[in-house]
Amino acid sequence: MIDKIQETAEYIRSKVGEMPKTAIILGTGLGALVDHIDSKKYIPYKEIPNFPVSTVEGHSGNLIFGRLGNKEVMAMQGRFHYYEGYDMKQVTFPVRVMKALGIETLYVSNAAGGMNKEFRVGDIMIITDHINLFPENPLRGKNDNRLGPRFPAMTEAYDHKLIGLADEIAAEKGIRVMHGVYVGTPGPTFETPAEYEYFRVIGGDAVGMSTVPEVIVANHGGMKVFGVSVITDLGGKDVTDVPKHEEVQKAAEAAQPKMMEIMRELVDRAE
Ligand code: HPA
After folding, report:
1. Start-to-end Cα distance in the chain
2. Residue 124 alpha carbon to ligand 1 centre in Å
3. Is the pTM of this model over 0.70?
4. CA dihedral in degrees (191, 195, 200, 201; nearest 10)?
5. Domain positions in the chain
6. Atom of ligand 1 at shortest range from CA of 243
7. Lining residues, ligand 1, CB within 6 Å
8. Residue with CA closest to ligand 1 atom 9
9. CA of 237 to the centre of ligand 1 (A)
10. Whose CA is nearest to atom 5 of ligand 1?
11. Tens digit of pLDDT at every position of the chain (271 positions)
12. Which atom of ligand 1 is nearest to the CA of 190?
C-alpha cells in the first residue's frame, strides 16, 4: 500500500507548490467553505492516480488547495463512503495520502441524526468521541509500522485543544454548539426507532455513515483531528419523523453558515 500512497503523494506534489499542514474533509454541511478558499487549485479525483472516484449525487470529487484565512489548506470536496461499496482501505486512502504529504491536522464534517433529547434539527455538534460500529476496522490486516503502530490509542481521537478553541469561537459568535459522541454505522439505511434508541443507550448522541474510518486512520498516522456534525434529523422511539436524504441535505444547508463561521475561524486560529 505504501507504494501507492507515495505515488499518489508525488503526483499531488508535482501539481501543488507549497504543501499545507491542514486538511479539511468537506462533508454535508460544509461544502460552501470552498467559496472562502482563495487562490484555489483544483485536482479532480479522476485525475489522481489510485484515488477512488466519488459516486454520490451532490458530491463533486476534487482536491482543492488554497488559502483559508491565514492558512494554506488542502480540502477534499467529496468523500468516499463505505455504503457506496468502497472497502475500508479505499475509504481511508486519501487520509493516508494526506499524512504522506505532511498534513498534521485534519478537520472533518458530516451530517448526522440526533438521538440526544436536547438536540434540535440544525444544531451543530462538536464530536468529542466516537463509537465505531462499522463491520470492519480500516486498520485490519498486516500493519505497516511506517504508517503507524499496530495498536494505536484512541483515547483522544478528537483533539481537546481544538474542541476548547471551537467552544470559545462559538461563544464569541453566539452560536449554539452541542458536544457529543458520534456513532459511525455502515448505512445506507437510516435507523429504525429501536436502533436510534439503542445508540442513545450505549452512549451515542448522533449517528452517521462516515467520519469514523477517516478519523481512525488519521489517529493511526498521528494526526490531530477535529470533527463536527450538523444534526439534520432526530431519531428515537418517540420520534415519528421519517428522515429523507433531501431533508438531510436541506437541514445541512440551513446550518451551513454557522458551521462555516466556526470552522473558518478555527482553522485560522489553530496552531
Ligand atoms: N442516520 C444515519 N446517518 C445520517 C442520519 C441518520 O439519522 N442523518 C444524516 N446522516
Report:
1. 31
2. 14
3. yes
4. -170
5. 2-269
6. 7
7. 111-113, 190-191, 207-209, 232-233, 235, 243, 248
8. 112
9. 15
10. 113
11. 889 999 999 999 999 988 999 999 998 878 888 888 988 899 999 899 999 876 655 456 899 999 998 899 999 998 999 999 999 999 999 999 999 999 999 999 999 999 999 999 999 999 999 999 999 999 999 999 999 999 999 999 999 999 999 999 999 999 999 999 999 999 999 999 999 999 999 999 999 999 999 999 999 999 999 999 999 999 888 777 777 788 888 878 888 889 889 999 999 999 8
12. 1
**Ligand 1 atom 7: residue of nearest CA:** 113
Fold of 2-269: Rossmann fold (3.40.50)
One-letter amino acid at 108 equals V
For residue 144, how far is its CA from the centre of ligand 1 (angstroms)? 33
